[in-house]
Write a structure and sequence with these properties.
With 272 residues, the protein is of the alpha/beta class. The strands form two sheets. Strands 2-1-3-4-13-12-11-8-9 form a nine-stranded mixed sheet. A four-stranded mixed sheet has the order 6-5-7-10.
Length: 272
């Protein structure tokens, strides 16, 4: 049994590394928030050595592509992750990490050569992660830019908070309203029906937060990561960044609220 360590001033955050995708913006956001010593990276092999133990306050599965996670973690790796959360740990899945922790995914359904469908082992969210959001994609063409300045509303007991955030291929969570032990934390307000954009799931003694947009992406770091070279979507993406700059304060407030929630151990089950 994992006994949870009470978080002091500096949390211990473990970020998964697949060696395929660049998550420097996530590491920068965590460093800025919690200092240079809060974050450790791990890969599938590290999980087998017991690195995910009681000293870890939060495990983050970052963006990327979840088939790489499936290849390395299906079986033993996912069993370790699920045991950690069930015994009181916390999981934060960002974009691909949110797809990965759902019961099943539907990616680009019906689009030949791009569709990815099927169940996922972690099964923290007892519903379906469906994406990408075609209304957010350039010309509704999956081969073009997935970037978008999305409007969400963070749902808080102290009052709801609208925010402008960076979208880059994340899901909506179908069935979140009725899924056991699931709380909707934010919705995409510009989409019909305002589908769930961020959810929290009770998993044994622990919890998992699944986040579709990239709340960790600040407008400044996005601008630094934008290149004109070999980028046919350069002008469109500059316009997106300009919109995100105007909404940066709201993005930061929601990011801080989500991280505070992720790092708070669960004492009671999450109401559906």
């Amino acid at each position: 049994m994992i006994e949870r360590q009470t978080m002091t001033t500096t949390p211990r955050i473990l970020v998964y590394e697949d060696y395929v995708h660049n998550n420097a913006q996530l590491h920068r956001a965590l460093r800025d928030a919690y200092g240079p010593f809060a974050v450790t990276t791990c890969d599938a092999g590290d999980l087998q050595t017991g690195i995910l133990n009681k000293s870890v306050n939060l495990f983050i599965m970052p963006g990327g592509a979840d088939l790489y996670n499936c290849e390395k973690l299906n079986g033993a790796g996912n069993k370790i992750l699920r045991h950690y959360v069930e015994e009181g740990g916390a999981y934060l899945g960002l974009c691909a990490g949110a797809y990965y922790a759902s019961r099943d995914i539907k990616w680009a359904e019906g689009i030949e050569g791009h569709a990815i469908m099927g169940p996922r082992e972690l099964n923290f969210f007892l519903g379906t992660a469906v994406g990408p959001v075609m209304d957010f994609i350039e010309d509704r063409d999956i081969t073009k830019s997935w970037n978008h300045a999305a409007q969400i509303e963070w749902l808080d007991d102290m009052g709801n908070m609208p925010a402008t955030v960076h979208y880059n291929g994340g899901p909506v969570f179908v069935g979140a309203e009725d899924a056991p032990g699931t709380k909707i934390l934010a919705r995409y307000t510009s989409l019909p029906g305002s589908p769930a954009a961020i959810i929290e799931c009770s998993v044994g003694k622990g919890h998992a937060i699944l986040c579709s947009p990239h709340l960790e992406h600040g407008a400044t770091t996005l601008s630094r990561a934008l290149y004109n070279h070999a980028n046919p979507s350069f002008n469109r993406r500059w316009k997106i960044i300009d919109t995100l700059i105007k909404g940066e304060l709201s993005r930061k407030m929601v990011w801080d609220s989500m991280m505070k929630r992720a790092l708070t151990p669960q004492k009671t089950s999450i109401a559906a």
